[in-house]
Amino acid sequence: MIWLRVPLALLLIVGGFLSFLPILGFWMMPLGLLLLAEDVPFLRRPTMKALAMVQRWWDRYSQRRKAAAGGAVKPAVTGKPDDAQDAGSRLRP
Length: 93
Fold this sequence. Notes:
Distance between the termini: 38 Å
Number of helices: 4
Region (Disordered): 69-93
Structural class: mainly alpha
Shape: flat
């Protein structure tokens, strides 16, 4: 699939530079960089850091919106279920 991903990523990045045209836009550039990061090792770490930063921002933003709306603010998800069981054990009979 590398023969498909890399050219598609490059086309998306070039399309991002043509953002003044209809349909083409800046949204294409990050998408192209994400696709390219799958196959180019030195882009993986900065991409993962950027995604983690966006996720932290989104978590804080959504908590502030809930607090402003009067809803209960839950702590961030830790990745473990409350009952400390793994997902596979719940699926077994």
